């Protein structure tokens, strides 16, 4: 998979900019102790491009892709000499009404395609390669829901950057040149209380989200007593500069188990942007005025990773310093 290009500048990035797919698998793994486990991880990372070709050639138009991202603990085992400037475990948040937990996760594979079977086959081959070196912490299969809506009924990802704004928002640059082209990745698995949510009615739902439900028009809540989810998730620094992230959220669920959720995955050039967004959601702005969406959406997981550039990933796989 060739590196991407924006404004004639080659970016040695993984396929972070891939468009929203019809299917995805989010595979979070813990790696067991020992040199043999690390050897298996290196071999699997080294084989990733070949595995993508092995599975993807069967349906070239179905856009199979996979991003490998590494957690703080595993990074130190792969390369104890250097690490991305902001990489650290997910920081739990204890808000006035809701908590964002920090959960286990050494390695993330974010697999996307237009067909579920391609995602499944690649996940199977990756796990076959890792063998006993890996323990599955979470495997979540996501799907596109109608016109890119979440199971709450709203279009998701409207604020995503496009074009040249993608690398500006999602890819590390000259501020950390050793890891340029990489991206910080935060994942959270939310479960929704759809029964209580539906009982609110569309008008109350729209005030919480900050957009209209039918046509996705942004609502002005500057004068509202509580900020909407849309406003709390918008990050502006002290100089008045707005900082974006790239989301690739997917609905997931089981009708039989009555389980309905959203898998949040955010890619960011600067980890602090996602951390600030979550702090505003769970603590509130001002403190106490937390995101009312959390009254209906409960996070089950919280993990932080770094998706290195393709060349850095190859060095980690080969056992050399990044």
**What's the β-strand tally?**
16
Kindly, what is the distance between the CA atoms of the first and last residues, rounded to a whole number of angstroms? 20 Å
Q: How does the overall form come out from the CA principal axes?
A: globular
Structural class: alpha+beta
| Major β-sheet profile | 6 strands, antiparallel
Rg, Cα atoms, Å? 19 Å
The average pLDDT value, as a whole number, equals: 93
What count of domains describes the coordinates?
1
The total count of helices amounts to: 10
Proportion of helical residues: 25-40%
Uncertain runs with pLDDT below 50, 5 residues or more?
A: 1-10
Q: Which percent range describes the beta-strand content? A: 25-35%
Q: What sequence of helices (H) and strands (E) makes up the elements?
A: EEEHHEHEEEHEHEHHHEEEEEHEEH
Question: Can you tell me about this structure?
Answer:
The protein is an alpha+beta fold and 322 residues long. The relative contact order is 0.22. Strands 9, 12, 13, 14, 15 and 16 form a six-stranded antiparallel sheet that branches. A four-stranded antiparallel sheet has the order 4-7-3-8. It has a two-stranded antiparallel sheet with strand order 1-2. It has one domain. The N terminus is likely disordered.
């Amino acid at each position: 998979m060739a590196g991407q290009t924006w404004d004639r500048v080659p970016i040695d990035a993984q396929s972070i900019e891939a468009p929203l797919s019809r299917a995805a698998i989010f595979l979070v793994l813990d790696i067991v102790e020992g040199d043999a486990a690390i050897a298996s991880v290196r071999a699997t990372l080294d084989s990733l491009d070949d595995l993508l070709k092995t599975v993807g050639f069967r349906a070239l138009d179905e856009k199979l892709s996979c991003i490998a991202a590494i957690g703080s603990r595993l990074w130190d085992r792969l390369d104890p000499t250097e690490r991305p400037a902001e990489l650290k475990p997910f920081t739990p948040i204890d808000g006035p009404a809701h908590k964002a937990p920090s959960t286990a996760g050494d390695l993330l594979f974010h697999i996307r395609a237009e067909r579920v079977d391609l995602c499944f086959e690649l996940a199977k081959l990756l796990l076959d390669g890792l063998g006993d070196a890996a323990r599955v912490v979470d495997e979540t299969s996501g799907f596109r829901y109608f016109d890119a809506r979440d199971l709450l009924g709203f279009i998701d990802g409207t604020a995503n950057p496009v074009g040249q704004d993608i690398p500006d928002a999602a890819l590390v640059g000259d501020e950390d040149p050793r890891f340029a082209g990489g991206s910080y990745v935060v994942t959270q698995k939310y479960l929704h209380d759809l029964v209580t949510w539906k009982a609110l009615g569309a008008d109350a739902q729209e005030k919480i989200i900050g957009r209209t439900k039918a046509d996705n028009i942004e609502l002005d809540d500057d004068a509202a007593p509580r900020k909407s989810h849309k406003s709390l998730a918008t990050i502006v620094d002290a100089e008045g500069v707005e900082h974006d992230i790239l989301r690739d959220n997917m609905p997931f669920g089981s009708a039989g188990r009555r389980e309905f959720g959203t898998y949040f995955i955010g890619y960011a050039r600067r980890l602090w942007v996602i951390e600030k967004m979550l702090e505003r959601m769970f603590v509130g702005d001002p403190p106490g005025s937390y995101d009312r969406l959390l009254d209906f959406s409960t996070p089950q997981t919280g993990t932080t990773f770094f998706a290195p550039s393709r060349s850095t990933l190859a060095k980690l796989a080969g056992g050399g310093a990044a």
